[in-house]
Amino acid sequence: MEEATGLVKHELMAKFKDEITQDQIDQLIKGYAKLVTLIKPMKSFHWYISISLVNLFSDLDEINGKVMKFIIRPERVVDTSRVPVKLTKYPRPDTSTVSNARYIAMYEYTSSTDEPTHLYLNGKSYEEPVTETPKTGTTELWNVINLTKDNHPLHVHLGLFVALEQRKLVNVDVFRQ
């Protein structure tokens, strides 16, 4: 596995207990800032009160390339949202109208400490162009083969989907080789 090069940003988000004073927070920030002098590869330190996650591998413009934004506020904010008592029940899809069947194999490489380093979909990394582009109004059957150790390595945005069945792979280590 080749070593990554280029700029790496490490984002740390913190929520402090109510009894932590601003002075204690300031001391923590100074401690993190001091890491720049102690860790040679670390080039800079920035402290923000809001963070935006951005899709760097997208052809989208600056606004549409934003994934999500977190705003850290000093005052406590109460979450008043609730899970609905009853969820919408969608009918089971009619598989006789399937316009396309896809096979999506997911595989990840891990480090010497067994931490995931690279995830591949059908042998392609996330940096490569999108390959799965279903058409609006169609029904597709996706056969997802999860060769990772993760139980949730894939989720779909802006599309309605139903898991028709789930099977355990037999001899999964043979597939991983």
Characterise this structure.
The chain is α+β, with helices and mostly antiparallel strands and 177 residues long. The protein folds into 2 domains: 22-71, no CATH class; 95-176, Immunoglobulin-like. Helices cover 12% and strands 23% of the residues. The two termini are 15 Å apart. Residues 8-50 form the Stress-response A/B barrel domain. It is found in: Endoplasmic reticulum membrane. Its cofactor is Cu cation.
Overview in brief:
This protein is an alpha+beta fold and 177 residues long.
Summarize the topology.
Blueprint lengths: L21 H17 L11 E5 L11 E6 L26 E13 L5 E6 L2 E2 L13 E8 L25 H5 L1
Average pLDDT across residues?
77
Q: How many E-type strands?
A: 6
Number of domains: 2
What would you say the CATH architecture of the largest domain is?
Answer: Sandwich
User: Radius of gyration in whole Å, from Cα?
Assistant: 22 Å
Query: Remind me, CATH topology of the largest domain?
Result: Immunoglobulin-like
In this structure, how is the largest beta sheet organized? 4 strands, mixed
| Percent range for β-strand residues | 15-25%
Spans where pLDDT lies below 50 across 5 or more residues? none
The class by helix and strand makeup works out as alpha+beta
Report the CATH C-level class of the largest domain: Mainly Beta
Strand order of the largest sheet: 5-4-3-6
Oligomer: single chain
The H-level CATH homologous superfamily of the largest domain, spelled out, is: Cupredoxins -  blue copper proteins
Question: Element order, helices and strands?
Answer: HEEEEEEH
**Overall 3D shape:** extended
Helix content: 10-25%
Distance between the termini: 15 Å
- The count of helical stretches stands at 2
